[in-house]
Amino acid sequence: MSFDHLKDRFAIVGVGYTPQGKIPGRTAVSFHTEAVRNALADAGIGKEELDALFLYRHFDAIAGDYDVTAFTVAEQLGVRPSVIGQETYCTRGWLFNSIGLLASGLCRYVAVSYGDNARSGRRSFVKELAGGKATDDLAAFGDLSTMAKYAMQARRAMDTYGTGPEVWKEISIAQRQWACLNTRAAMYGKPLDDEGYYASALVAEPLRLLDATPNSDGGRAIILTTVERAKALGRPYAVLRGFGSANQPVSPLRISVEDEDAAAKRASRAAFAMAGITHADVDACELYDCFTYTVEATLRDYGFFRPQEVRDFLRRERLGPGGDLPVNTSGGMLSEAYFMGLTPVAEAVMQLTGRCGDRQLGVLAGTKAPSIIVCSDNGAVFQSHITLVLERGG
Amino acid sequence: MDFFEPRISADTAPFWEGCRAHELRFQRCKHCGKVRWPAGYLCPDCLSEESEPVVLPPEGTIYSYVVMHKPFHPSLADKVPYVVAAVDLAEGVRILANLLDWDGEDLRCGMPVTIDWQDSETYSRPIVKRKGE
């Protein structure tokens, strides 16, 4: 199926930030509302113009919060969008849902939001148990945590393609270097070296604590609209030049590293073809990095390197500040903050609109001002994936 | 070594009943012949609901494995580190199984293994043995 008629027709016109890191005493809802308010202000539109609101996945309330729903967020923003929605788990439907509403003319402006008090509330990512009882049959094998599922894939890639901690260390350190240029990042002022990486405790071997994204308090939101409206707003924006979406809806156990139909492969092929670009056209990548290995898998599945070349390709000199393939220039989820796909997407928009301060590509020594940035958003365990090719607009 | 009693649904009950009898029991689609896993009401290939039990041989290869170091539940504190393996059986079926008494020696993806059983009071679960053990 070709989506070529949708190329260059939609834009991200607003990005909303909140205080982030460890912000005790605030509800998850408060981070959603603050992020959406700030995104509306960034776009220069009033809240009455918002006619669709999508929240990232629903989580169980923690830290004494009430349940977080899109009803609550809309109520507290004082908006009545004609469409509201929230994923129930980690699918990545927001992009196609937004585009469908904008392309059909059903909606003019769509907000996509994420907020959580995961750090203060110590959110757990162990859904195989509830109240100490198994929720399915995985706990019978001690297969607990999302991290264990990624570790299973990472181990397979080690034995098949020769990757390993020596590679994940490079990803971790490169992103930490970026974070040290970003005052907003959790790891700002906390440089990391080889010794620091290897000192990190093994959690689900082969993955260490530093291979996993830490929890954050805070929120993030973006506003999408048509390119015509984006132009009329008169502010810098990012154009959606290409995109793809694919799901591999099977149990994490059945996901295979070698799968030629991996969701990331299908989504990126569609996005690159629609955008009419090759890898050489990509100025930076902002990738969903729940784990270091996810960055490796995404770049590999996107075709930036051949699987067996992983050790040569993924080096900090390439991915970090001044490298020829800047990746996760905010520090990413690993070193900036965890707001699901909105961490990479927001950073791509900020880079393309030239608002990244010390880490701004084109200002930072040895870098080029970006015109095309590729983003990924990955849901669950490689089960749901979207690719966005964003281009500087305005 | 036990972890947690599995939650067993109407769909997964035949598999766990097979485990109790020390058999790797799955469903074979009567319409297209595909072995179905995970257990389900319909064949995800041809959507037929007709199936018959099939017992797969107790051998396979390690697709991958994880060594769990962090106890994600307090009751696991004295069990870590332990090994969770994904084992490819015949007919494209991949199951989880633990390697008990892991002593830190090298495992490899692709390593051939046999399936044995660990009995608990109320259920049995597959475990991994190296070939020839």
Describe the structure in your own words.
The complex is a heterodimer of chains A (394) and B (133). In chain A, a hairpin with a 1-residue loop joins strand 7 and strand 8 (207-208). Chain A has 13 helices and 13 strands. Chain A has a nine-stranded mixed beta sheet with strand order 3-2-4-9-1-10-13-12-11, sandwiched between helices. In chain A, helix 1 crosses helix 2 and helix 5 packs across helix 9. Chain A is of the alpha+beta class and 394 residues long. Chain A has one domain (4-121, 213-393): Peroxisomal Thiolase, Chain A, domain 1 (3-Layer(aba) Sandwich). The radius of gyration of chain A is 20 Å and the shape is globular. Helices cover 31% and strands 19% of the residues of chain A. Chain B has 133 residues and is mainly beta. Chain B has two domains: 7-56, no CATH class; 57-133, OB fold (Dihydrolipoamide Acetyltransferase, E2P). Chain B has one helix spanning 13-20, and strands at 24-29, 35-36, 51-56, 59-68, 82-88, 94-99, 112-119, 124-130. In chain B, strands 6-5-4-7-8 form a five-stranded antiparallel beta sheet. The longest helix of chain B is centred in the N-terminal third of the chain and has 8 residues, at 13-20. Chain B is globular, with a radius of gyration of 16 Å.
Tell me the fraction of residues in β-strands of chain A, as a range. Answer: 15-25%
- Strand count of chain A: 13
Q: Architecture of chain A, according to CATH?
A: 3-Layer(aba) Sandwich
Question: Largest protein interface?
Answer: A-B, 35 and 37 residues
Strand order of the largest sheet of chain A: 3-2-4-9-1-10-13-12-11
* Oligomerization: heterodimer
Structural class of chain A, by secondary structure, is alpha+beta
CATH hierarchy, class of the largest domain in chain B: Mainly Beta
Number of domains of chain B: 2
Shape of chain B: globular
Main sheet specs of chain A: 9 strands, mixed
Fraction in helix of chain A:
25-40%
Order of helices and strands of chain A: EHEHEHEEEHHHEEEHEHEHHHHHEE
SSE string of chain B, helices as H and strands as E:
HEEEEEEEE
Mean pLDDT of chain A, to the nearest integer, reads: 97
